[in-house]
């Protein structure tokens, strides 16, 4: 049988499984009608503080890391969920991994976007600060910048933005949103760097010209980074007016007011005379403000808040961000997205409400919030088998790192220090994996939190953000890219400096294959790749495949590779539950 001949059928089966059956979307968790009173919460069941099995531990690690490893499963089963998270939150015990120093060490003439991506991806695969790097990755999909318009002389700046998200991943939302706002990478991407107050002049042809503040960042700061488009209750349900209509969070006049607040900010160190001067290559210090270019008149923003700090642009920004961070929409709006990134695409209103309460009680402490996300009962107690609305598709990048981590991947950079991945079409994962690090086609990310599958008769099905990446072509290309990163790289020999991809350690599975212990092989893969989710029927199918390969006198290493390939194509791998 060809290694890829059955891939399209496997992926079609995956799509049907994700949708809850053929012909349409599965039933999502019931959602209250807009404006309906919230139901009385049911008693929250308890769960054991320490996972009772390797599968339970692996399921948690699928949510909280870039993929389970044998060592992490053992550690988690030793100390329990809460202590494991506390270790990850403590930079003294789990230091922050930074990407920028390596990127700046590579000569510009040798640097390309893939080097930045490969180095980050390998740190995400191997470094111990797994929860922090996962959180930073999730934040990068909310506070989006992209390197698509960058040149090599500026990759250090966008790497610094990535590091900034990691350094602030467990701090306060208020601090994070300020650092996002003032980072030159964001200032360039959403064009509020060198934004100036409104001015008019007569040009050489006698035409009166008026320049108004750029509104790009002002709009996206509200729509995507904080409060969304409509007023929300703490459980994310929409607030309604007396006529039963949703209530907008802002209008065009609000956008204009916000844009005026954001005037005067430019490259760090610039003055009135050098306001328009372009920053140095890789300049990543926070933007600085030139008061002469800041709109000193009163500015009305959302909820009637007035910013009237004169030409003091630092005070104006602080007052605006204070008001933004205190807006009641921020807690449910961001909490829901974090739940979607880590646990499930369709969290119940009660789940969102519980996490939102932690947000509100702690003033937006992101470390406390992500702990609440991961330790909520809806995260820790597995769903019923017929609950098709629960879970999420693993992002393609997370599928790749999970494969590498499951088999203790090893890699040696080239002699010049670069991380070169030459397997298949590894140059641009945005094409082959339909996703890449900080390379989104727009500020709306590679996929949107409100993307839904289509249900029967055109009715909107469950939310499934990651499945927005998939179509007939990308289903196959994602599988083939993972296949090329795994099939030829499952080896017994250690890597060399010329290895074109991380080498996956085949030895534990190979030892079982050589003993013809096919059941144990499947059980090991079930834990490390599938978080113990393999159904009895699918387990029997995998064992049968291995038995038949043995009957056909296929060597042990081929049986190992065939098993891993089948596991990576399975719904239990791609759909996280």
TrEMBL record:
Note the InterPro entries from the entry.
Answer: DUF1800
Endpoints of the signal sequence: 1-20
Ordered alphabetically, the record's keywords are: Signal
- PROSITE patterns this protein is in? PROKAR_LIPOPROTEIN
Task: Give the superkingdom in one word.
Answer: Bacteria
What is the protein named? Answer: DUF1800 domain-containing protein
| Organism of this sequence | Luteimonas deserti
Source taxonomy = Bacteria, Pseudomonadati, Pseudomonadota, Gammaproteobacteria, Lysobacterales
